[in-house]
Amino acid sequence: MKHNRPGETLVYIMMRSVTYLIMLIVAYIIFDIVWHGVGVMSWEFLSGSPRKSGAEGGIFPVIMGTFYLVIGTIIVALPLGMAGAIYLTEYAKANRINHYIRLAIITLAGIPSIVFGLFGLGLFVIFLGFGASIIAGALTLACMILPIIIVASEEALKAVPQSFREGSLALGATKWDTIRKNVLPYSLPGMMTGSILGIGRAAGETAPILLTVAAFFLPRMPQSIFDQVMALPYHLYILATQLPDIEKAQPMQYGTALVLLLLVLGMNLVAIILRGRFRKKYRW
User: Fold this and answer.
1) Residues 61, 47: contact at Cβ < 8 Å?
2) Of the residues 18, 109, 235, 242, which has the maximum number of CB atoms within 10 A of its CB?
3) Is the pTM here over 0.85, yes or no?
4) Residue 11 domain-assigned?
5) Angle at Cα 160 formed by Cα 159 and Cα 165, nearest 5°?
6) What is the CATH number of the domain that holds 267?
7) Domain that holds residue 88
8) How confident is the model at residue 144 (pLDDT cuts 50, 70, 90)?
């Protein structure tokens, strides 16, 4: 096997170099956003309302709009995704129909977000008559991340040893009691991690909310779930492309980008903390 070692060493060096290169690129992007955006961060910026189409003022309505969309997405997508994963893993039989269902879910997970935006526009905004609103945007984002949550939750459920189920059933427990007490507690770390990462992706999407909920300039708080809102991804897009004096708005761009970055990183941190706590509580 000695003649394979130079090739293995070359592949190892290439893979390591690619990994370091990706890390450097990501580090540079984060550093650039933090370096230019930290000077904009202030109480006025975080608590004030935007002025002059967002070129001045604060971004509080923008942050709250994103918060409402994320909460709505969680309420819809999280229970549906986990329930779907439980059914496919624990109850569904291994037949052709369920095989095609799984294939469809995996395919949907890779569809571009603009397609979900058009779907939400046609179904929720026009057909169901919700209009451009929080509920239409949240439902569209929920549809977008639902396949991701199902796939992640299904893999977490499959990772639980089959002996846990067999032992519980042998002692006379019902199917649901077995799932609830012997499967879910040990699969929750993976399920929660995948779900929160999917929700973090939804928080940073622009295309779906562009067609279903986002407003160009709306410096007020929504009164109901049928109102439009401003959102961080779309607001950043407006600041970067639609203002007449883009260079003057550059500090606002970096400040908004930093808030969005902190929001997504915060969700990822929550996922890591939850995963660690559940793993400490349920060891196997």
Assistant:
1) no
2) 235
3) yes
4) no
5) 145
6) 1.10.3720.10
7) 38-281
8) very high
